[in-house]
Amino acid sequence: MYKPSNSVPFTLRPWTLTDLPSLVRYANNPAIARFMNDQFPHPYTEEAGRYFIGLASGEEVAHLFAIEVEGEAVGGIGVHPRSAIERKNAELGYWLGEPFWGRGIITQAITRMVAYAFQTFDINRIFARPFGTNGASQRVLEKAGFALEARFAQTFFKNGEYHDELVYALRRRE
User: Domain N-acetyltransferase, which positions (predicted)?
Assistant: First the structure.
């Protein structure tokens, strides 16, 4: 498992409406949006931010969290429990403001989120689906203990281009 060396101190906490300015400031970045699901808009507007914070803060059991550094929300992370035959699984998603890349924050945030998810939800597997061209995301997942389970050629379609979909997963340790 990942052992942070000189990671920046951060907190995972619920989103609040006071996070709106920093959410829009850091999320409104094409370098982030290019590797996100289309539900993560670009440009990232105040309207989109209000909608997201409303969803995140209205949860019965929190599964979407702000990544806070020095009192400011600079990214987000969440697990999305699945249903029906996938009910023992949850999908992990995350993003971090570009000024905070390369500081060990997201790998440690993933590790904390995994511990929270296995403690909170009746799941046995957490998976993430990075783009095949997103090497940074692949590396942080591997540092956090995830293993590559599959590569699907040309399944994502983003900005007029096809991209490979990778599936990384981590299973509950008994």
Answer: 10-173
User: Residue 125 corresponds to which tokens in the numbers above?
Assistant: 């597997």
DSSP character for 57? Answer: H
Distances from the Cα of 9 to the Cα of 22, 41, 112, 140, angstroms = 18, 28, 13, 17
Cα separation, 117 vs 102, in Å, equals: 24
Q: What is the pTM of this model?
A: 0.93
Name the residue with tokens 């281009």: 161
Residue-range domains of the chain with CATH: 11-123 (3.40.630.30)
Q: What is the CA radius of gyration of the chain?
A: 16
Instruction: Indicate the pLDDT class of residue 1, thresholds 50, 70 and 90.
Output: very low
